[in-house]
Design a protein that fits this description.
Layout lengths: L3 H8 L1 E2 L10 E3 L37 H11 L4 E4 L6 H9 L4 E4 L3 H15 L2 E6 L4 H13 L4 E7 L22 H7 L5 E4 L5 H15 L2 E7 L17 E3 L6 H16 L5 E4 L3 H4 L2 H11 L2 E4 L14 E4 L9 H6 L4 E4 L20 E5 L2 E4 L4 E3 L3 H9 L7 H9 L17 H11 L4 E5 L3 H7 L8 E4 L8 H12 L4 E7 H7 L3 H6 L5 E6 L4 H6 L12 H9 L5 E6 L2 H12 L6 E7 L7 H14 L7
Parallel strand pairs: 3-4, 3-5, 5-6, 6-8, 7-8, 10-11, 10-13, 11-12, 13-14, 17-18, 17-19, 19-20, 20-22, 21-22
Antiparallel strand pairs: 1-7, 2-9, 14-15, 15-16
Keywords: Decarboxylase, Lyase, Magnesium, Metal-binding, Pyruvate, Thiamine pyrophosphate
Catalytic activity: a 2-oxocarboxylate + H(+) = an aldehyde + CO2
GO cellular component, one term: cytosol
Amino acid sequence: MLSLTEQKNKNRVISKPSSSPSMDFKVGAIDTCKPLNNVVANLPAQNAVTIQTSTVPFNSPDSTLGRHLARRLVQIGVTDVFSVPGDFNLTLLDHLVSEPELNLVGCCNELNAGYAADGYARARGVGACVVTFTVGGLSVLNAIAGAYSENLPLICIVGGPNSNDYGTNRILHHTIGLQDFSQELRCFQTVTCYQAVVNNLEDAHELIDTAVSTALKESKPVYISIGCNLPGIPHPTFSREPVPFALSPRLSNMMGLEAAVEAAAEFLNKAVKPVLVGGPKMRVAKASDAFVELSDACGYAVAVMPSAKGLFPEHHSHFIGTYWGAVSTAFCAEIVESADAYLFAGPIFNDYSSVGYSLLLKKEKAIIVQPDRVTIGNGPAFGCVLMRDFLAALAKRLKHNPTAFENYHRIYVPEGHPLKCEPKEALRVNVLFQHIQNMLSGDSAVIAETGDSWFNCQKLKLPQGCGYEFQMQYGSIGWSVGATLGYAQAAPEKRVIACIGDGSFQVTAQDISTMLRCGQRTIIFLINNGGYTIEVEIHDGPYNVIKNWNYTGLVDAIHNGDGKCWTTKVRCEEELVEAIETANGAKKDCLCLIEVIVHKDDTSKELLEWGSRVSAANSRPPNPQ
């Protein structure tokens, strides 16, 4: 058994190496916030700021770990923290509550608190949640894993055991009954880029600042456990107001950058009909502006992968839609897959984005640009080359070539409209989304839940400034309820439109309560088709049928006369039109839930195609041994 000192040293910091280059710190301001539209965040500010020299007298109630953490969160752009109280984090919550610029948002469960921090990070650039030890930590773990997969900086703070209990052979509540308290920490090691266990005040300042800066640097979640007896104890290291800091920008290897640009320009300039395709890692690379600059300069046809929707302006003159293999938007796949060269900026090729590994792409025709690496065809590859630097430099070297876009323009046929409904005819999903399209503006944002909403929302044409978010890599059903809460809290000037299936809603419905407490005015279209439709199309069975709820009745019960809330059920187009008019008119300041009742087999044609291909990929027999 380790001594107390050895146990403290063992738990002092456990951090996982990252594949990204290390960075130094400098004094300055930090700007990590993503603008509230479909343009990715600006780079960290380069201008140094005046160092605040005010000090808080030692032994003052303000010279504490809790106050330092609260001030640090505010400095990086977090003004709302999503939490669930538990006995190990109550003292810490006291200090967060006492910070005037920080709003503590109490959630119904830890999973939704994590999802809310995820949605908040998508709008603000960084999010935070606070839970209690192990029972809270393991509950929030799924949401943290989703944020990790989506490259979102998220500060997960856990109220830990009393610092005196480490190494004492004591068994604590909220644990699995062993004297070793590291189970939660070990679970977080695989889904966070840095872990800090703060069980003494001597190095707490260093650990907290390192964790926060690492989340911003790596654009991944971090884990901070703080002993429950530490937040309120004054310590000299916290006697000064936290000095605002910035991360030194990553720099490209200039020789590598020049070589990569020269090779890529030669590759693309000799092509007859090259295209550009934007991918989801443009967000973490902060390269959307550079990608637009490249698009403007070269004149190529421009598509986005499904998980990059919202990262490129869809009003751009050469935008041709979403490239998603067999379920791409109309005429997009034909142009991309027939090109003789394609540049993919920040792609993720998984089984979902590749429609069961069925994309008709050839490696030798592709330039793959990742956040810090460029690969041209089968080779060469260039490391330490930042995406945004590469795209901006390449824009100056490419010949203008609109051939692919001109081909698209020649073959394009405007999409038809859904068949007109007969009076009082049962509402169809394609009619629903035709009306949702008409609701969108630069003052709105769309949250698409895992399921058929993925495919229907992909076909929406986003006006300039309209936000768009969904979780494709992790694909956790129920994500959208918490994410909607967090996004709406981060962007109160936007009217969030959430499209959620009934099965997903049942997973996380409780935090409609928190939306009401926060006075949010989201419009939720709850699509009631009686089950897990996306899973039906992959592999059907009785387990995909769920118990039908009275969803409007449930939300009315949660409302309970406290807050602004309006609900309705719609079964036909006439009722839908009336409901939308009410939500945008008399109830524009209310949380609105519109339960849309549709047939269980009413799905998009894209889901039918995608489901059969993913099913085929899932059911491949084992390779011969």
